[in-house]
Design a protein that fits this description.
alpha/beta, Rossmann fold, 7-stranded mixed sheet, 9 helices, rod-shaped
Length: 361
Protein backbone atom coordinates (compact mmCIF):
# COMPACT_ATOMS: atom_id res chain seq x y z
CA UNK A 1 0.00 0.00 0.00
CA UNK A 2 1.39 3.42 -0.96
CA UNK A 3 1.59 6.44 1.34
CA UNK A 4 -1.30 8.05 -0.56
CA UNK A 5 -3.43 4.97 -0.17
CA UNK A 6 -2.49 4.92 3.47
CA UNK A 7 -4.22 8.30 3.88
CA UNK A 8 -7.49 6.38 4.07
CA UNK A 9 -6.40 4.16 6.93
CA UNK A 10 -9.23 3.45 9.39
CA UNK A 11 -8.40 5.88 12.19
CA UNK A 12 -10.21 5.03 15.38
CA UNK A 13 -10.39 8.66 16.49
CA UNK A 14 -11.33 11.91 14.80
CA UNK A 15 -10.54 15.22 16.46
CA UNK A 16 -13.22 17.65 15.26
CA UNK A 17 -12.66 21.33 16.04
CA UNK A 18 -15.85 22.92 14.78
CA UNK A 19 -18.21 25.78 15.62
CA UNK A 20 -21.73 24.49 15.33
CA UNK A 21 -21.46 23.32 11.69
CA UNK A 22 -20.78 19.64 10.82
CA UNK A 23 -20.64 19.58 7.02
CA UNK A 24 -16.89 18.93 6.97
CA UNK A 25 -17.15 16.24 9.66
CA UNK A 26 -19.79 14.52 7.51
CA UNK A 27 -17.58 14.85 4.40
CA UNK A 28 -14.63 13.34 6.28
CA UNK A 29 -16.75 10.34 7.27
CA UNK A 30 -18.14 9.89 3.76
CA UNK A 31 -14.72 10.09 2.05
CA UNK A 32 -13.16 7.36 4.13
CA UNK A 33 -13.81 3.95 2.49
CA UNK A 34 -13.60 2.37 5.94
CA UNK A 35 -16.64 4.30 7.09
CA UNK A 36 -17.19 6.50 10.16
CA UNK A 37 -14.64 6.44 13.00
CA UNK A 38 -15.17 4.67 16.30
CA UNK A 39 -14.76 7.84 18.33
CA UNK A 40 -15.07 11.57 17.76
CA UNK A 41 -13.48 14.07 20.15
CA UNK A 42 -15.72 17.05 19.49
CA UNK A 43 -14.39 20.49 20.51
CA UNK A 44 -17.43 22.65 19.89
CA UNK A 45 -18.59 25.56 22.09
CA UNK A 46 -21.65 26.15 19.86
CA UNK A 47 -23.24 22.86 18.82
CA UNK A 48 -24.22 19.70 20.59
CA UNK A 49 -23.33 16.03 20.73
CA UNK A 50 -26.62 14.95 19.13
CA UNK A 51 -26.23 17.39 16.24
CA UNK A 52 -22.75 16.04 15.51
CA UNK A 53 -23.93 12.45 15.72
CA UNK A 54 -26.79 13.13 13.27
CA UNK A 55 -24.21 14.19 10.65
CA UNK A 56 -22.65 10.73 10.73
CA UNK A 57 -24.03 7.69 8.97
CA UNK A 58 -23.29 5.47 11.95
CA UNK A 59 -25.22 5.87 15.18
CA UNK A 60 -22.91 3.95 17.53
CA UNK A 61 -19.97 6.34 17.24
CA UNK A 62 -18.64 7.42 20.63
CA UNK A 63 -18.68 11.20 20.84
CA UNK A 64 -16.74 13.01 23.57
CA UNK A 65 -18.05 16.56 23.55
CA UNK A 66 -16.02 19.40 25.11
CA UNK A 67 -17.52 22.87 24.80
CA UNK A 68 -14.28 24.76 24.28
CA UNK A 69 -11.44 25.80 21.99
CA UNK A 70 -7.93 24.23 22.12
CA UNK A 71 -5.33 26.82 23.08
CA UNK A 72 -2.23 27.46 25.15
CA UNK A 73 -4.03 30.43 26.70
CA UNK A 74 -5.97 30.50 29.95
CA UNK A 75 -9.48 31.78 30.48
CA UNK A 76 -12.06 32.16 27.74
CA UNK A 77 -12.92 34.00 24.53
CA UNK A 78 -16.06 34.85 22.56
CA UNK A 79 -17.54 33.21 19.46
CA UNK A 80 -19.74 35.57 17.43
CA UNK A 81 -22.89 34.39 15.72
CA UNK A 82 -24.19 36.17 12.64
CA UNK A 83 -27.44 36.63 10.83
CA UNK A 84 -26.26 33.86 8.47
CA UNK A 85 -27.02 30.59 10.35
CA UNK A 86 -23.76 28.81 9.44
CA UNK A 87 -21.29 31.61 10.11
CA UNK A 88 -19.59 31.70 13.51
CA UNK A 89 -16.25 33.38 14.16
CA UNK A 90 -13.89 34.57 16.87
CA UNK A 91 -12.92 37.74 14.98
CA UNK A 92 -14.65 40.62 13.29
CA UNK A 93 -15.68 40.21 9.63
CA UNK A 94 -13.87 42.02 6.83
CA UNK A 95 -15.35 44.04 3.98
CA UNK A 96 -14.80 41.02 1.72
CA UNK A 97 -17.32 39.01 3.73
CA UNK A 98 -19.72 41.93 3.88
CA UNK A 99 -19.50 42.18 0.10
CA UNK A 100 -20.22 38.47 -0.18
CA UNK A 101 -23.21 38.70 2.18
CA UNK A 102 -24.67 42.17 2.04
CA UNK A 103 -26.46 43.07 5.23
CA UNK A 104 -24.59 40.42 7.27
CA UNK A 105 -24.16 41.47 10.86
CA UNK A 106 -23.21 40.07 14.25
CA UNK A 107 -26.22 38.67 16.04
CA UNK A 108 -24.69 37.67 19.39
CA UNK A 109 -21.73 36.15 21.21
CA UNK A 110 -21.13 32.94 23.14
CA UNK A 111 -18.42 32.56 25.78
CA UNK A 112 -15.99 29.73 24.95
CA UNK A 113 -13.53 28.26 27.43
CA UNK A 114 -9.96 27.55 26.37
CA UNK A 115 -8.95 23.87 26.58
CA UNK A 116 -5.39 23.26 27.79
CA UNK A 117 -2.89 20.95 26.13
CA UNK A 118 -3.08 18.64 29.12
CA UNK A 119 -6.86 18.49 28.90
CA UNK A 120 -6.73 17.65 25.20
CA UNK A 121 -4.03 15.01 25.73
CA UNK A 122 -6.18 13.25 28.30
CA UNK A 123 -8.96 12.57 25.75
CA UNK A 124 -6.80 11.87 22.68
CA UNK A 125 -5.05 8.90 24.28
CA UNK A 126 -1.46 7.75 24.05
CA UNK A 127 1.11 9.81 22.23
CA UNK A 128 1.72 7.04 19.71
CA UNK A 129 -1.94 6.91 18.63
CA UNK A 130 -2.72 8.72 15.39
CA UNK A 131 -6.01 10.39 14.52
CA UNK A 132 -7.83 12.28 11.77
CA UNK A 133 -8.49 16.01 12.07
CA UNK A 134 -11.55 18.05 11.08
CA UNK A 135 -11.46 21.85 11.29
CA UNK A 136 -14.43 24.11 10.58
CA UNK A 137 -13.71 27.35 12.47
CA UNK A 138 -14.19 30.27 10.06
CA UNK A 139 -11.23 32.62 10.18
CA UNK A 140 -9.35 30.60 12.85
CA UNK A 141 -8.26 27.59 10.77
CA UNK A 142 -4.56 28.46 10.65
CA UNK A 143 -4.39 29.45 14.33
CA UNK A 144 -5.89 26.04 15.24
CA UNK A 145 -3.35 24.26 13.02
CA UNK A 146 -0.45 26.25 14.46
CA UNK A 147 -1.52 25.44 18.00
CA UNK A 148 -1.71 21.73 17.17
CA UNK A 149 1.75 21.96 15.57
CA UNK A 150 3.32 23.78 18.51
CA UNK A 151 1.78 21.43 21.06
CA UNK A 152 2.95 18.33 19.15
CA UNK A 153 -0.49 17.02 18.17
CA UNK A 154 -0.03 17.67 14.45
CA UNK A 155 2.64 14.95 14.22
CA UNK A 156 -0.09 12.43 15.13
CA UNK A 157 -2.51 13.60 12.43
CA UNK A 158 -2.81 11.40 9.31
CA UNK A 159 -5.59 13.27 7.46
CA UNK A 160 -7.04 16.77 7.63
CA UNK A 161 -10.48 17.87 6.38
CA UNK A 162 -11.26 21.56 6.67
CA UNK A 163 -13.38 24.32 5.25
CA UNK A 164 -11.85 27.77 4.79
CA UNK A 165 -12.54 30.99 2.97
CA UNK A 166 -11.12 31.43 -0.48
CA UNK A 167 -10.54 35.04 0.55
CA UNK A 168 -9.74 36.63 3.91
CA UNK A 169 -13.20 37.08 5.40
CA UNK A 170 -12.21 37.81 9.04
CA UNK A 171 -9.60 39.95 10.75
CA UNK A 172 -6.25 38.15 11.39
CA UNK A 173 -7.45 35.20 9.26
CA UNK A 174 -5.76 33.38 6.34
CA UNK A 175 -7.15 32.52 2.93
CA UNK A 176 -7.14 29.16 1.15
CA UNK A 177 -3.79 29.72 -0.58
CA UNK A 178 -2.01 30.59 2.68
CA UNK A 179 -3.47 27.57 4.47
CA UNK A 180 -2.52 25.21 1.65
CA UNK A 181 1.02 26.63 1.57
CA UNK A 182 1.39 26.25 5.33
CA UNK A 183 0.19 22.64 5.26
CA UNK A 184 2.49 21.86 2.35
CA UNK A 185 5.44 23.21 4.34
CA UNK A 186 4.38 20.87 7.16
CA UNK A 187 4.25 17.81 4.87
CA UNK A 188 0.53 17.55 4.13
CA UNK A 189 -0.39 17.15 0.47
CA UNK A 190 -3.78 17.96 -1.02
CA UNK A 191 -5.99 14.93 -1.61
CA UNK A 192 -9.22 16.54 -2.64
CA UNK A 193 -10.91 19.90 -3.02
CA UNK A 194 -14.65 20.28 -3.03
CA UNK A 195 -15.78 23.60 -4.41
CA UNK A 196 -19.56 23.33 -4.35
CA UNK A 197 -19.42 26.63 -2.51
CA UNK A 198 -16.62 28.42 -4.43
CA UNK A 199 -16.15 30.98 -1.65
CA UNK A 200 -15.93 28.32 1.11
CA UNK A 201 -14.16 25.30 -0.39
CA UNK A 202 -13.62 22.09 1.54
CA UNK A 203 -10.09 20.68 1.43
CA UNK A 204 -8.78 17.20 2.23
CA UNK A 205 -5.09 16.62 3.04
CA UNK A 206 -3.01 13.57 3.90
CA UNK A 207 0.24 13.45 5.81
CA UNK A 208 3.35 12.90 3.69
CA UNK A 209 4.99 10.38 5.99
CA UNK A 210 8.18 10.19 3.93
CA UNK A 211 8.35 13.97 3.85
CA UNK A 212 7.91 14.05 7.62
CA UNK A 213 10.86 11.74 7.99
CA UNK A 214 13.14 14.03 5.98
CA UNK A 215 13.43 16.81 8.63
CA UNK A 216 13.94 14.17 11.29
CA UNK A 217 16.63 12.50 9.18
CA UNK A 218 18.18 15.86 8.37
CA UNK A 219 18.12 16.80 12.04
CA UNK A 220 19.61 13.41 12.89
CA UNK A 221 22.32 13.80 10.24
CA UNK A 222 23.00 17.32 11.44
CA UNK A 223 23.16 16.07 14.99
CA UNK A 224 25.48 13.23 14.02
CA UNK A 225 27.63 15.63 11.98
CA UNK A 226 27.76 18.01 14.91
CA UNK A 227 28.52 15.16 17.29
CA UNK A 228 31.25 13.92 14.92
CA UNK A 229 32.71 17.42 14.70
CA UNK A 230 32.58 17.68 18.48
CA UNK A 231 34.28 14.28 18.77
CA UNK A 232 36.95 15.34 16.27
CA UNK A 233 37.48 18.53 18.21
CA UNK A 234 37.56 16.58 21.45
CA UNK A 235 40.02 14.12 19.88
CA UNK A 236 42.25 16.97 18.76
CA UNK A 237 42.04 18.49 22.21
CA UNK A 238 42.80 15.11 23.75
CA UNK A 239 45.76 14.64 21.36
CA UNK A 240 47.08 18.09 22.23
CA UNK A 241 46.60 17.35 25.93
CA UNK A 242 48.33 13.98 25.44
CA UNK A 243 51.30 15.61 23.75
CA UNK A 244 51.42 18.26 26.45
CA UNK A 245 51.24 15.55 29.09
CA UNK A 246 54.05 13.67 27.36
CA UNK A 247 56.19 16.81 27.42
CA UNK A 248 55.25 17.42 31.03
CA UNK A 249 56.02 13.77 31.86
CA UNK A 250 59.40 13.97 30.15
CA UNK A 251 60.19 17.20 31.95
CA UNK A 252 58.99 15.62 35.20
CA UNK A 253 61.15 12.56 34.58
CA UNK A 254 64.13 14.84 34.01
CA UNK A 255 63.32 16.67 37.20
CA UNK A 256 62.95 13.36 39.02
CA UNK A 257 66.33 12.22 37.67
CA UNK A 258 67.88 15.50 38.77
CA UNK A 259 66.19 15.21 42.14
CA UNK A 260 67.45 11.63 42.45
CA UNK A 261 70.99 12.82 41.77
CA UNK A 262 70.56 15.60 44.31
CA UNK A 263 69.01 13.13 46.75
CA UNK A 264 71.89 10.68 46.16
CA UNK A 265 74.42 13.43 46.76
CA UNK A 266 72.44 14.53 49.78
CA UNK A 267 72.36 10.95 51.09
CA UNK A 268 76.10 10.65 50.55
CA UNK A 269 76.61 13.98 52.29
CA UNK A 270 74.26 12.84 55.01
CA UNK A 271 76.23 9.65 55.53
CA UNK A 272 79.45 11.66 55.66
CA UNK A 273 77.85 14.09 58.06
CA UNK A 274 76.55 11.19 60.16
CA UNK A 275 80.04 9.66 60.21
CA UNK A 276 81.53 13.05 61.09
CA UNK A 277 78.84 13.47 63.72
CA UNK A 278 79.66 10.02 65.12
CA UNK A 279 83.32 10.95 65.19
CA UNK A 280 82.47 14.28 66.74
CA UNK A 281 80.31 12.54 69.30
CA UNK A 282 83.22 10.17 70.06
CA UNK A 283 85.61 13.11 70.26
CA UNK A 284 83.11 14.92 72.40
CA UNK A 285 82.79 11.93 74.70
CA UNK A 286 86.53 11.65 74.98
CA UNK A 287 86.81 15.38 75.47
CA UNK A 288 84.14 15.22 78.16
CA UNK A 289 86.06 12.36 79.78
CA UNK A 290 89.33 14.25 79.56
CA UNK A 291 87.60 17.36 80.80
CA UNK A 292 86.24 15.36 83.68
CA UNK A 293 89.73 14.13 84.46
CA UNK A 294 91.12 17.63 84.15
CA UNK A 295 88.37 18.99 86.35
CA UNK A 296 89.16 16.30 88.89
CA UNK A 297 92.86 17.10 88.58
CA UNK A 298 92.04 20.79 88.85
CA UNK A 299 89.95 20.09 91.93
CA UNK A 300 92.83 18.16 93.46
CA UNK A 301 95.29 20.86 92.36
CA UNK A 302 93.04 23.53 93.81
CA UNK A 303 92.98 21.56 97.06
CA UNK A 304 96.76 21.26 97.01
CA UNK A 305 97.07 24.92 96.13
CA UNK A 306 94.78 25.82 98.96
CA UNK A 307 96.86 23.69 101.30
CA UNK A 308 100.07 25.23 99.95
CA UNK A 309 98.60 28.66 100.36
CA UNK A 310 97.81 27.76 103.94
CA UNK A 311 101.30 26.49 104.49
CA UNK A 312 102.81 29.49 102.72
CA UNK A 313 100.76 31.80 104.88
CA UNK A 314 102.01 29.92 107.98
CA UNK A 315 105.63 29.98 106.80
CA UNK A 316 105.29 33.61 105.80
CA UNK A 317 103.90 34.37 109.23
CA UNK A 318 106.75 32.49 110.94
CA UNK A 319 109.21 34.27 108.66
CA UNK A 320 107.68 37.57 109.53
CA UNK A 321 107.86 36.69 113.21
CA UNK A 322 111.46 35.50 112.78
CA UNK A 323 112.39 38.65 110.94
CA UNK A 324 110.76 40.68 113.66
CA UNK A 325 112.62 38.71 116.23
CA UNK A 326 115.87 39.17 114.31
CA UNK A 327 115.19 42.89 114.12
CA UNK A 328 114.66 42.96 117.80
CA UNK A 329 117.72 40.78 118.50
CA UNK A 330 120.06 42.51 116.06
CA UNK A 331 120.94 45.39 118.39
CA UNK A 332 121.50 43.03 121.26
CA UNK A 333 123.54 40.67 119.12
CA UNK A 334 125.60 43.57 117.89
CA UNK A 335 126.07 44.64 121.44
CA UNK A 336 126.99 41.08 122.49
CA UNK A 337 129.36 40.81 119.57
CA UNK A 338 131.02 43.99 120.66
CA UNK A 339 131.27 42.71 124.15
CA UNK A 340 132.70 39.45 122.89
CA UNK A 341 135.25 41.30 120.80
CA UNK A 342 136.18 43.30 123.77
CA UNK A 343 136.26 40.23 125.92
CA UNK A 344 138.49 38.33 123.63
CA UNK A 345 140.64 41.24 122.49
CA UNK A 346 144.38 40.57 123.40
CA UNK A 347 146.29 42.75 125.81
CA UNK A 348 148.87 45.01 124.29
CA UNK A 349 151.76 42.96 125.76
CA UNK A 350 150.35 39.82 124.50
CA UNK A 351 150.24 41.25 121.10
CA UNK A 352 153.91 41.97 121.09
CA UNK A 353 154.84 38.50 122.03
CA UNK A 354 152.49 37.01 119.61
CA UNK A 355 153.82 38.64 116.43
CA UNK A 356 157.37 37.09 116.57
CA UNK A 357 155.99 33.76 117.18
CA UNK A 358 153.91 34.23 114.18
CA UNK A 359 156.93 35.11 112.14
CA UNK A 360 158.74 31.99 113.25
CA UNK A 361 156.17 29.84 112.43
Amino acid sequence: MSERQGAYSPEKTVLAVVWGVYDTLKWCSERNPHGPPQRVVLLDPIGSKSAALSSLSKSDVEIIHIAGIPSDKDGQTEIFSHTHPNIFSSARMTTALQSLFPGLRVKGAVAAEYISTEGLSSVLGREDETFALVVETPGAELSILKYLEESGFLDRVTTIHLRCGKDIFFEHASDEAQIREWLKAHFFYLLDRRGEDPDWPQLAFAADLNGRRIPALEARIEGMTKALAERDSALKDAQAKYEQLEKSLKAEQERVTAHKAVASHAQSSLRENEEALARARGDSARARHEMSLMLESLRVTQGDLKDLRGRYASVFDEKRKLEELIRKLTPRLQEAAGQLRELFAPAPNDAAHTEPAADQG
